[in-house]
Amino acid sequence: MRRQNNNLTNIITLIVLALIVAGGAFIYFSPKFEKESPKISFDNSGFWNLKDSLNVALSDESGIKSYKVYYKTLEKEIVLNSKELDSNQSKVVFNIEKFTLDPSIEKIKIAIEVIDNSMWKFFQGNKAYKEFDLTIDREKPLARVLVNSRTIKKGGSATVVVEVKDKNLSKKYISFNDEYQFELIPFIKKDFYAAIIAWPIDVEEFNIVNLVAIDKAKNKTVTKVPLYIKDLKIKNDNINISKNFIEKVSIPVLKKSDYKIPSNDVDIFIKQNRELRAENLATVKSESLKNMSRNMLLEYNFRTFRRLEGSKTFAGFAERRQYFYENEKIDQAWHLGMDWASIKHADVKSSNNGKVIFNDYLGIYGNTLIIDHKLGVQSLYAHTSKFYVKKDEKVKIGQKIAETGSTGAVFGDHLHFGMLVQGIEVNPLEWMDRAWIKSRVTNILDEAKQEISSTK
Fold it and tell me: If you count DSSP H runs as helices and E runs as strands, how many of each does the chain have, helices first?
């Protein structure tokens, strides 16, 4: 009998232990007893202007049970938002709005406390707590225009010199039509900047040019840059594309650029003229912006850019080309430079000092050089047959840099010459005009330099 009782006791003990283990396993692995603390996301830069709302996002698998937000100074704690939630919400989003704060206070802590609906920790749930330091900045940046070119022509350039100052400055730039942004280059002294800006040829309407300065607290100052505008006469050209051009030019260029060749002539030309062109233009812009000099400009001496010696002009800037195949229009594109031709493999020389920032094969442009001349101004030389300079090499006025050729999407030997302002193609004729450079660039920089030099 005693043995039977012992056996029964052992069985009961095993059953109890099994239930305890099963219960423990259930508690450990059950979603109702999840052990992860809630996640707190607070969208801030470490600065606050006390005007814009601050976004808070809370999340947890078992749902948010309650949360509390308060701010802390050295002297006190004040609750800004506290809520107990009835429904099981796995994500809660809300804003911290403006509240009254003593003007003398420059730094505060925002504290966020969250408890989830988990039954873990004896049904008390998991808790998360985070503190975020914020610097209070109520002041807008100083952003004023010192001097700028009076006019800008469609497809052309203008110079702007400005002063921008803020202890927590985040961004500063010149905007064109609120669409294009031009970087500001440090000029002469701290807090002063210069930029050459452009009116892109494919932008029909001129709306506004602004100096924009934004600090880390998102205080923003916008100052208008006053400019008179001039239109540009556009030349329209109709160009017939032959089967011979497609076979001898389009297909080889696409193959060399690792493009698949379409099955019909029209698609082949469109792929070369539209898709490859767009990729090449994007490369020009990215290389221009990535490699342009951003060093403080202390000296400047822009000379006129010269036409290829002994050459004739076969195409100009801002020609709107319509392409036809077998009497049907198949595509269109802008011609964004000057085409000059003289003898085969003619010497190409640099008109200004600069630094080579690109020398490579570039699709429709063929073998291409880009030289940076500071202040975001660059010259481009395309279809060359041979380079005489390497990337990162400094070049001097009059130095031989290449020879003309017929590489890329062309038949005959010539030079395609272009001017860039922060990667945007601009009218080379302006930069070939001594009077234009003096009145629109050099005089503006000189006037600004004199004003800056007189400041303390």
Answer: 8, 30
- Exposed/middle/buried for residue 17 (C-beta within 10 Å: 0-12, 13-18, 19+): exposed
Same fold, 32-136 and 235-426: no
Per this entry, what is the length of the chain? 456
Query: Encoding tokens for residue 279?
Result: 């990729």
The residue whose two tokens read 């994500």 is 91
Give this prediction's pTM: 0.86
Segments making up each domain of the chain, as ranges: 32-136, 142-231+445-453, 235-426
Dig out the tokens for 82 from the structure: 């506290």
For domain 32-136, give the CATH number: 2.60.40.2470
Between CA 147 and CA 347 the distance in angstroms is 39
pLDDT digits (tens, 9 = 90+) for 365-407: 999 999 999 999 999 999 999 999 999 999 999 999 999 999 9
List, edge to edge, every strand of the sheet that includes 220-224.
180-182, 169-176, 209-215, 220-224
Report residue 70 as tokens.
């308060």
Tell me how far apart the alpha carbons of residues 233 and 399 are, in angstroms, rounded to a whole number: 34
CATH architecture of 142-231+445-453: Sandwich (2.60)
Domain boundaries 235-426, CATH class? mainly beta
For 64-75, write each residue's pLDDT tens digit: 888 999 888 777
Q: How far is CA 355 from the centre of its chain?
A: 23
Distance, CA of 245 to CA of 250 (rounded, Å): 7
- Report yes or no: 350 and 397 within 8 Å, Cβ to Cβ: yes
